[in-house]
Amino acid sequence: LLTAISVERCVGVLWPFWCRCHRPKLLSAIMCSLLWALACVLAGLVYFVCDLGHSEHCWMVLGSLCFLNFCFFTPLMVVSNVILFIKLRRSSWQHHPARLYTVIVLTVFFFLLFGIPLSVQIFLNFFVYINFVFEICLLLASFNSSINPVIYVLVGSYGKSRFRGSVKVALQRVFEDR
Fold first, then answer.
1. Between the N and C ends of the chain, which has fewer C-beta atoms within 10 Å?
2. Which keywords does this chain's UniProt record carry (predicted)?
3. What is the pTM of this model?
4. Phi-psi region of 31 (alpha: psi -120 to 50; beta: other; left: phi over 0)
5. Which string of DSSP letters, residue by residue, matches 120-143?
C-alpha cells in the first residue's frame, strides 16, 4: 500500500491535469482492493506452505516474497518518492511541501529504516539463522507498524505553538485536500 500511495502521489504531482480530468474515479479503490487481495493470497500461501508442514517448498515462497519486496515494491516506492521530493523542491510556487507529502516521505523513510531489516533477515535465514538478530528485526518491524499514527499526529500538529486540538483534528489536518 505504501508503494501504491507513493506512486499515486508522484503521478499526481507530475501530471496533475491528467489526474484531475482523466484518472478513473475508482482507480484507488480498485488498486487497494487488489493489493489487499494479493497480500491475503501471499500470507495464505506462506501459512499453507511454511506452517502446515510443506516445508520443502517454503524457501521458494519466502524467496519469491523477498524478490517481490526488494526488486519491485521497495525500488518503485523509493524512486517515486525521490521524484516527488525533487519535483516539490524545484517547484517555485510552493515553498513547503504539503502535509500529506511530508507524511508519505516520513512513512517511507521509517519503513526503509525499520521495516526492511525484517525482509533482509528472512532472506538471510536461508543461509544462517541468528535468533537474536531475528528478534531485533521483529522488534523494529513492530516499531515501524506503530510509528505511523505518531507521524500523522506530529505532522498534523506541526506549526502550532503547542498541540491544542484532539488527535482527530490533527489527522484531519494531515489528510485534508487543499
1. C
2. G-protein coupled receptor, Membrane, Receptor, Transducer, Transmembrane, Transmembrane helix
3. 0.66
4. alpha
5. HHHHHTTT---HHHHHHHHHHHHH
At residue 43, what is the residue type?
Answer: A
What cell does 13 get?
504531482
Q: Which residue has the cell 489527522?
A: 171
Q: Taking residues 35-52, what's their average pLDDT?
A: 86
Q: Distance (Å, rounded) from C-alpha 132 to C-alpha 126?
A: 16
Residues 136 and 37 sit within 8 Å (Cβ to Cβ): no
Nearest to 121 by CA among 113, 131, 111: 131
Cα–Cα distance for residue pair 96/81, rounded to 1 Å: 16
pLDDT for position 34: 93
162 vs 87, 103, 148, 158, CA distance in Å? Answer: 31, 19, 20, 9
- DSSP state, 69? I
pLDDT attached to residue 82: 84
The residue-averaged pLDDT of 71-84 equals 85
CB 158 within 8 A of CB 99: yes
Spatial separation of the C-alpha atoms in residues 59 and 122, rounded to whole Å: 10
pLDDT tier, 161 (very low <50, low <70, confident <90, very high otherwise): very low
Three-state DSSP state, 160: coil
Cell numbers at residue 89, please?
523542491
